[in-house]
Amino acid sequence: MIPWGITCFFEKRKDFEETVEISLRYPLQFIEIRGERPFFAVDDLKPDDIRYFRKIISNTGLRVTFHATFYDINLSSLNPYLRNAILECYKKSIEIASEIQAEIMVVHAGLVHKDAAGIRNLVDLARRNLIENLKILGEEAEEKNIIIGLENSPPNVHRLMVPGWQEHRHILKEVNHPKVKGVVDMGHAFLHGHDIQTYFHRMEDLLAEIHVHNNNGLEDQHRAMDIGVIPYEDFFLNNNVTVPAIMEIHNLTEAVQSLEWIKTLNAKKSVSGN
User: Is the four-CA dihedral 43, 49, 50, 53 of positive or negative sign?
Assistant: First the structure.
């Protein structure tokens, strides 16, 4: 059975509580916590806040993945001052991830500014910085028994370090750390023009989890699983997914719609024998 998980773009704790409560009615194993303001800011969390999240999670029996902040973050930064600040932020995030008993902490690879995208030496430096930063985070994560998951990003005006599976694999192979693995965001991959099945299979041996959400083929909308043009039913009926499949849906209404979609999918899988 696919180990499904879910998250919404929470802004208030009551939204989180409601999502968790609803999720218990469905065959879910994971809840993803997004480490973004205003819902979950690592630098603002107090011991009581950590206890709040741990209590809710403990009461549900759900396993946890943590999507670390990517606002104002660039793991490939060419600026050494920013690099140090980013590493400090993510080291603190690993501590928080451990406290909420997360198994995986997701990060984005970063980018090179469009004005420097054509300068080979700078792109190579950014790639080296990304690889070194991931090695450092891998060591920190290993102490807490957490996996760092490197996710592919949606299209951007700047040069992304991980726009496709080739770069994704290359970076992870260069990092070569047991606690640094891949996260394939199917919605992002589709927006780059990739076939999601090909991307999945090319990355399958390196994966920590996948992210799924739908869109119109033009924008990173994070719609319900059956609202959009990505052929998820075909993908899940014809592929054996054993890593967590986290549905990242933009609101609670469509999250529930996606949960109902899982029930329909499971019924079809039972009939087909897949």
Answer: negative
Contact 220, 188 (CB under 8 A): yes
Report the candidate in 51, 48, 55, 57 with the shortest Cα–Cα distance to residue 19: 57
> Which 3 state secondary structure label does DSSP give 103?
strand
CB contact burial 184-209 (16+ within 10 A = b; e otherwise): bbbbbbbbbebebeebbebbbebbbb
At residue 196, does pLDDT exceed 90?
yes
The whole-angstrom separation of Cα 89 and Cα 95 is 10
Q: CA-to-CA distance for 68 and 90, rounded, in angstroms?
A: 8
> What is the 8-class DSSP label of residue 154?
P
Pairwise CA distance, residues 237 & 215, whole Å:
20
pLDDT in tens, 197-207: 999 999 999 99
Please give the Cα distance from 123 to 255 (Å, whole number): 38
What's the predicted TM-score (pTM) here? Answer: 0.96
The residue segments making up the domain with residue 56 are 4-272
Amino acid at 45: L
Q: How many CA atoms lie within 13 A of 57 on its CB side?
A: 21
- The residue whose two tokens read 């949960």 is 259
- State whether residue 50 is helix, strand or coil: helix
User: What CATH number does the domain containing 171 carry?
Assistant: 3.20.20.150
Residues 130-176 have pLDDT tens digits of: 999 999 999 999 999 999 999 999 999 999 999 999 999 999 999 99
CA distance 45 to 75: 23
The token pair that represents 180 in the structure block? 């640094």
Query: In this structure, is the dihedral angle defined by the CA atoms of residues 177, 94, 164 and 196, taken in order, positive or negative?
Result: positive
Number of domains in the chain: 1
